[in-house]
Amino acid sequence: MQTKKQTPAVSVSAPFADLESNSSDNLLEFDNGEVTYLQGLEDAPQGRHLGLFSTIILFVSRILGSGFLAISSGMYNDCGRSPFIFLLSWVVASCLAFCGLFVYLELGSLIPRSGGTKVFLEFIYDKPYMMTSVTVSVYSVMFGFTILNLLVFGEYCLHALNVEPSVFRTRLTGLILLYMVCAFHGISVRHGVKVQDFIGAMKLILAGIIVATGLWINLLPYSVTHVEYHVKSSEFFLAKTSVSLSLFANAVIKGTFAYGGWNSVHTVTNEIKDPVRTLKIAGPVALSIITLTYIAINFTYLAVIPSNEIAESGQLIGAVLFEKIYGYHLGRQFLTLASAICTGGNVFVVLYTISRVSQEVFREGYLPFSSFMASNWPRNAPLPTLLLSCAFSTLIIVASPGGDVYNYVVSLESYPQQIFVALCACGIFVIRSRFPYVVAPIRSSRIGSIIVMIISAYLIILPLVSANPNPKGLENWVPYTYLGLFSLFFCFLYWLCMFVIGPYVGNYTLAVEEQQQADGLIVKRWIKLRAGEI
Fold first, then answer.
1. Which pTM does this prediction carry?
2. pLDDT digits (tens, 9 = 90+) for 48-84
3. Cα 298 → chain centroid
4. Helix (H, G, I), strand (E, B) or coil at 504
5. Can you spell out the DSSP letters for 287-329?
6. Parallel, antiparallel, or unpaired for β 35-37 and 2-5?
7. Bond preceding residue 463 cis, omega within 30 of 0
8. Separation of alpha carbons 32 and 346, rounded Å
């Protein structure tokens, strides 16, 4: 192991502190003199092995998970069971996803490094020193788990096999999948990606079936489909239960969870071939496929399933739809099992990206056991961070009580993410003001960036001021808004203790060492220097 010690001063390791020097390592230029990158390319030890198809599959597999199969029932109730407001919530979530996608594409083209939101925010908001970096990083590790898709996989799998989906069976099935995925990704990155691509291709086929089904049901008469049509123009705009702006905000937040993943592929930028060009094509193509699929299936829900059944179907709404259209064997068993496998594919991608984000965090060195946790041990794959995510996921699944935990966790995960997305959208204008000479290879429109800020602010503020934003039956739980904000505050306290209170009380200065591990990965280590040692 080689060790390189930097100058022992707190300001030395500030993220991207040398950008003002216009060094060639950070600012690259074309022949015409236009600056393209604010941060140079950095290869992962695994090499750049993700091409255009794999990146599109990564986008689609990451986004197309349990959301479109399980979340619509909760959104329908939040929208007062009004078909118009229900579809409007999906349209708003789609607009937010597209606008946010181009915000991230611009930031990713300027800073083409793995880490995604963490890397973008620590570059944009670099004062106070290390605050943004530590807060976002610790938060990402705390929430580095996947449980929702595991539960949906377990329920759909058991439903397809005609096994009564009890709480124990559902959770056990989901955990078995989790450990299998961890083994694939932890033993061989190459084989894990191959399985990921195969299941992703199945998702594209399923998306095609869903879109074709939607067109068949909505365009052809009953004499052809033999499926009763429940969308009535006289009731399309009517709400059957009470609806408010805060409830609509809750529905959009759930919708953004279903679109969640458009901002996650940047977490593995170091593994993408020609990342700027690849992401520029893969992002819009994948999100267009997802949007068409979501609009088709949600309109088909309204057309095929009676209103009361939609409201009461919960996570099995997709299975109800397939059984009504295709019958027991093809609908309930084959297509429901296919949906379960596709949901399982989402677990492959989520665990893959979570492990990379956590690895980037541990590379910064301010969390315990950083050197080991950041390593590609034992076979050139980040098994330590994979096991950490498995441990968190297992703990939450085993310890969580009954009730509508699914929609609660959806909102809890999505709410702080809206804050990060809003800060990234603001960051577009910060970067353009700070570096007016920079020409981003991919540009986000001003209007799109402003729309992201406005909608994100709406989704942040309204649930916070509403009486109780929790799902029905969980009103006695801590509101997910407060719990999400408290989690961010806890991460802020971690930074405050390590970088402000600790050095002040202990009369020392923090300096950073860079250590090159056996696999070539650079990991930082923070050391305390007393006054006489500086």
1. 0.73
2. 767 888 888 878 877 876 666 678 888 999 999 999 9
3. 21
4. helix
5. HHHHHHHHHHHHHHHHHHS-HHHHHH-GGGHHHHHHHHHHHII
6. unpaired
7. no
8. 42
